[in-house]
Amino acid sequence: MGMYSSSLISPKGNSGMTLLSSHNDDTTVKFPDIGFDFFYNAINCRTSINVSGNSWIGFTGANEQLKINRRDAGADNIYYANETINDKPIFRIRWEGHQSYSTWGTLDLVWELIIFNDSAMVLVIEKIPNTGTNSFENPIIGTTTLTLANNKSYAFILSQDQGKSYTVQEGSYVQANIKYLIVDGNEIKHWDTASSSYAKVSELPLTADKFQTYGDDTYHKERAGIISTAPVLKIWSPLTEMVAPKVTQTIRPKPIIVNMKDDISFSEAYIKDIINAVVTLDNTGSGIITFIVSVDSGVSWKAWNSSSWGLVDIANMQDVKSKGMSVAILQGITEAQWTSLDLSNKKIRFAWYMEIASSTDVLKLKQIRVNYNTT
């Protein structure tokens, strides 16, 4: 977590940096592991960042996602360095070249890109002739045109986590040395990696020393080890001015098996057998629903597996998920296949497994209709 600053920063130059590529005309080259996780469009780009002699960066590979005077240019030298700012790791890229591939040694296009370990970035322009394309492929938002000038810096601040979208402003970025602790009742807790849960470090009161000794660099959304129904996240930073942090907790239902309480009876003498089953469903997103059937009032359960009716353990959620029938399979069961289920008891009931992967998923079962063949 950090904050935007309107202050401009200057390029640091190539002293102490590692040379990645020289006399690069049209070649695309890849940086080594940058040393920390960096997310762009929810993809971890730790080992996939590319750069071109035509002055662009590809975060997810050879894709022109950040263009800085992009044209048929030439890079005399491309450098990188692993550095720190406020005790946090950064990866700095420096591109030195020219707007035209034919003018080697004339440096009129020089820029640096600072990548932070929280997926923010700062682009520092030393020289730019503005004879090419300046743009950023902003996830979710789309192509963002950039206005770039000599001796200016531009902050790419996350507006959604994991680099799903950014706001771009002239200025810079301050990544604070932030520490996190949880107050659970009267106890102060931090994240214990060995047990993958929150563990007590002391009683209240909370002091700066306790943050510096026990504080976590990142907060964990898990609640393992927390007793209170209303734990409090505490945040410490040496910054005298800091944007108020915002923690968003998204809750989605756990997978569930729904079991009909009563049988569907078709004991009438004129009903011969089942023709088909028709499902009415709202399923927007990546929701999963699978069906199983019982002809003995829920004592045993079965699913059609493309050749026969196989037993399914309704007490085993994974078994129902993996062996249960999709809507397409259930609706595709033929009259002969329904008859092979042994419907002599003239009753049937359904159960179904439901799961959503995202809070934006919509999964609603409205109706299961059974159509009969009559004599």
TrEMBL record:
What name goes with this protein? Answer: Uncharacterized protein
Q: What species is this protein from?
A: Clostridium chromiireducens
